[in-house]
Structures are given as structure tokens and as C-alpha cells.
Amino acid sequence: MRLLHTGDWHVGRTIRGRSRAEEFADALREVVGIAREEAVDAVLLAGDVYDQRSPSPEADALVFEALVRLYEASIPVVAIPGNHDAASRLGALAQLLRPIGVVVVPRVVPPSDGSLVEVASRDGSEIAQVACLPFVPERRFGDAAALFRATEAWYQSYAEGMGRLIEAMCEPFRPDRVNVLLGHLFTDGAIPGGGEHQITIGIEYAVSPSRLPATASYVALGHVHRPQAVRGAPSPTRYAGSLLQLDFGEREQTKSVAIVEAHPGVPAKVREVALSAGRRLVDVRGTVDEVLAKGRGLPDAHLRVEVLTEGPMPGLNDRVRDELPNAVDVRISYERVEAEPAGPPVSSLASRDQFISFYRTEHGVDQVPAEVLDAFDEVAELEGA
Asked: pTM of the entire structure?
């Protein structure tokens, strides 16, 4: 069987408040195109389909369009929610999505209740069993464990309990099937991508790779945004990574999907297919002239700009944004002096002296530029101060 493993789409994510809908549309079209060109038997979608638990209609339209295109290409999809998705919402949509070949397992249930999904190859010669493990928050682990014959050992720690839950979820694997675990979780030793919620990738959430099933042909994971193989796992295991460079912590990463060649009884072979859609995220640093020159040469990137100056330059932020419309973050950087020992309370000073105290503290300078004081005096006079 040939499978396409993807995840962490985060459709609806903005960057510093700016929409990235067009980038998501391009990336999803690219994923569908790869699935068609590779003639995959199924797509495995490893959670965090959306960026928000209540996605916008625009985000819904992008996701549904991609799923319909896969259906038109006769490519089924098996999907689970991640920590960014609303499991109840995906559960409500599950019955609507099934007629277009999309099987959603919205919450942890025993294999006999629907978490073990079978997918046949195009020619019907092989069958994959996909054990679906949606994201389990620590506070809800007890609810998941209660569905199984959980012993006291399950509750020693979250990581220990998740290991035992994985074992129970994969118990029905058969040697004559392509066995796949599809999960949204953090494994010990995985390298975060930089754009994840740090609260869900800490050590308390880290499941040992050794607890992943040795009986699996492949383990398809979501949650970590950097595409990577998982070391120490007994079976081929991989994070597909996010669809786009979602934040500047991911700016050096090449995004991809994984194409998985799998047959019963043998470890899968995996190769990456790089994604080219979406704007790059680039840091630009230097003097005013340097950042403007560099920025003009990167018209299709989202820029994080750091301007090096000798001191405060009123209006510089606006100038940079005007000349570099793709600058999503602008910071002025200069050497700051240590604040002088505290004098009289600011509240006891005249308004002009209060402003001088504020400006010196805020900008780390000894002197307020004359043109700034002139502007303050003009405004104060207009206000009748």
C-alpha cells in the first residue's frame, strides 16, 4: 500500500494578525496534487486540522475543498483531531464527511467501537488497519483510560498511561495487514518546530518512543511541526510536520509530506516530498538602509525586521512598514543606558517632566530629542495643559 502522511495543517493561522488564507489554499492544493501524482491509497491526517477550536467559515471552506478534491481522486482520508481542534465539532461533522470518503475518529474509543479503521488498497490486494489515537489532554486521560481495563499502573504518570493506552489501541494488529498507528502526541527526544504550544510538548507529555508498537508497519504522528523521524521507536515512525512555516521559530524548515510504502509483515519505507507553497519567514537585520535594501529583495516573504540605530528614531517603525508592506514585525534596537536612581515620584512632577521621565525610561536614553519635546509642547498647548 502507498499512503500519504500529513498533519498539523493549522488552517486559519494568521501571522501577526495578517491572513494566510491564500497560502493555505496553495499548500492544500499542493498536497492533493502530490496524493494524485503518487496514486496513494489513502491520506493519513494526524491532527491539528485547524488552528482554532472554532474555525472561521473561510478556514472550513479551505479544508472541505481539499477533502472533496481527494474524494474526486478516489483517495480516502483517515483523520484525527489534535490539541488545536474541537473534538466535539469534528465528531459532529464525521457523519457528513463519511460519504466523501473521510473517516474521522474524534475521540479515544476502544478498537471495537470504531478507533480501528480499515482501508483497502486500490486493487484490493492489501488492507491497512489504522489505529486512531486523537490528542489526549492530561486532564482527560482518566476518561480515556476508563474505557479500557485500566489498572493502577496506568495512572502512575501521563507518559506511562499513554504507553499502556497505545498498547491497548494496537492490540488487534494482525500480521496479514498493514498496521498503522495514527496519533497526535509528543515523544521523548522529538525536536519541536518552534511554533507549537509549549504547554503540550513538555517533559510531562513526553511518551517514550519505546512504547510505540513494534507490530506497526508505520507510526504516523502529528503535534510536532518540524518534519522528522522518531529515533528509538521499534517501527518506522515520523512526524509529518506542519503545512507552512507557521512562526519565525520554523523559518529554516522545509515543509513536506511523507509517502509511505507499506506491506504486511515488513517495516514501511518512507520518503519525504517537499512542499513549495507558502511564503518563507525571514529575519532581516541591519541599519535602516540595509534592512530596506534587503527587504525589497524579498517581496514574497514575511519579514521580521530589526533596525539597528544609535537611539530612538520617531516614525521609523512606520517608515519601514510603508516601504516594506510584507514586514509583519518591526523592532528598533540600540544600546540603552541604565536608568538613574529613582528621584521624586513621577506623580509629583509637572506633565512635561512626567513625559521626559517616561521617555528616558522607555527608550533607555539620557536626553529627549528636541524635536520630540517640541511636539509634546505643541500638543500640550493645544490641549490647554
From this structure: 0.86
Question: Alpha-carbon distance 245 to 282, whole Å?
Answer: 10
Identify the domain boundary among 237, 252, 274: 274
Distance (Å, rounded) from C-alpha 62 to C-alpha 29?
A: 10
Cβ atoms of 180 and 80 within 8 Å: the answer is no
Contact 209, 32 (CB under 8 A): no
Give the bridge partners for 48, in sequence order.
none
How is residue 103 written as a grid cell? 473517516
Q: Transcribe 241-297 into DSSP letters.
A: --SS--SGGGTTPPPEEEEEE--TTS--EEEEEE---S--EEEEEESHHHHHHHHHT
Long-range contacts of 280-286 (CB under 8 A, 24+ apart): 280/245, 280/251, 281/15, 281/245, 281/247, 281/248, 281/250, 281/251, 282/251, 283/248, 283/251, 284/327
CATH number of domain containing 193: 3.60.21.10
CA angle 207, 182, 41 (to 5 degrees): 155
Number of domains in the chain: 3
Consecutive sets of 10 residues in the chain, 385 residues long: mean pLDDT of each? 98 95 98 98 98 96 98 98 96 96 97 96 96 94 89 88 95 97 96 76 82 97 97 97 95 96 96 96 96 96 95 89 96 74 65 78 75 78 64
Q: What is the CATH number of the domain that holds 320?
A: 3.30.160.720
Rounded Cα distance, 240 and 225, in Å: 8
CA-to-CA separations, 109 to 148, 170, 209, in angstroms, rounded: 9, 12, 22
Structural domain span for residue 348: 338-385
Q: Which helix (H) or strand (E) holds 359?
A: helix 351-363
